[in-house]
Amino acid sequence: MILKSKDVLGLEDMSAEEILGVLEIASKFRAVFDRPVRNVPIMRGRTVVNFFHEPSTRTRISFELAEKRLSADIVNFSSATSSFKKGETLRDTAENLAAMKIDMLVIRHSSPGSARYLANVLDCSVINAGDGAHEHPTQGLLDIMTMRQRLGDLRGRKVTIIGDIAHSRVARSNIWGLTKLGAEVTLCGPPTMVPAALARLGVEVEYDLRRAVAEADVLNVLRIQLERGAGKTFPGNREYHRMYGITEEIVRSLKPEAFILHPGPMNRDVEIAGEVADGPSQVILDQVANGVAVRMALIYLLSGGDPGALGGVH
């Protein structure tokens, strides 16, 4: 049994063994993508609700594709057209959905802890698709999968996370996951966006971009989270790009084998130059493809799937 919990709420809760086990299953599902027929009937007859209370494009579509490729029945929930507009609470809405005998709930919500709250209320499995500025575990897993495809074992590898760390749920999931796998993590960005207190998570904090990336194997570039209040601590697009933007000049200073991740959506010519975003050093589309595989793996495992029975998916 790879996952010890009925829910996936954050990488803080997962052991290194669980993380590696999920990624092993994800790699098997990733092989399905190259087949003419990409669907497998593993989740036939099971229902997954995508409960998105916050705007999303990549994560929502990635989960939907993962569910469809596993042949699940899917219900998509949008707060914009729901009873939330009439004052219904999160718990009431979720319990009504659970009463319809669903098997799994994927939730994205602007409030930190919302996924854990529902996991404590509901009998079905809950997957956190992002809760405020707390965690985004599936993004963390797909980022780690992408790094391991290039680097193998991450022990001793140097990963620099750059940008709005203070407001980023992606950063927190990556910090928990990478440090558990033995990577050396450095955080970099403006002092207003990278609190020094984050060093207690077992990472280095560096405010000079060139020093932060000098020995890096991976640059994980984050979006400025204006919707979570980053505008109050943001120096402005031009100034930010001059000080912390990943430009061609920065790329030329990296180790030749170093590569760049970005969870999207990206602000071109703010946190990353357009020519870098389209250049040979980035692996952004690999991240997108791996996201579907990671989400397939989690849904499969939470539904009671047997890891040993996956030989046939190839």
SSE topology:
Layout: H1 16-30, E1 47-52, H2 58-69, E2 73-78, H3 90-99, E3 104-109, H4 114-121, E4 125-131, H5 137-151, E5 158-162, H6 169-180, E6 184-188, E7 204-206, H7 209-213, E8 218-221, H8 237-244, H9 248-253, E9 259-261, H10 274-277, H11 284-302
Parallel strand pairs: 1-2, 1-3, 3-4, 5-6, 5-8, 6-7, 8-9
Helix pairs in contact: 1-11, 2-11, 5-6, 5-11
Question: How is this structure best described in words?
Answer:
Helix content is 36%, strand content 14%. It has 11 helices and 9 strands. Strand 5 (158-162), helix 6 and strand 6 form a beta-alpha-beta unit. Helix 2 (58-69) packs across helix 11 (284-302). The model has no long low-confidence stretch (mean pLDDT 90).
Mean pLDDT: 90
- Give me the CATH superfamily of the largest domain: Aspartate/ornithine carbamoyltransferase
Number of helices: 11
- Low-confidence parts: none
- Count of structural domains: 2
Elements, N to C (H/E): HEHEHEHEHEHEEHEHHEHH
Distance between the termini: 21 Å
Overall geometry comes to globular
CA radius of gyration is 19 Å
State the share of residues found in helices, binned by percent: 25-40%
CATH class of the largest domain: Alpha Beta
Strand content: 5-15%
Strand order of the largest sheet: 7-6-5-8-9
Q: How is the biggest beta sheet arranged? A: 5 strands, parallel
* Strand segment tally: 9
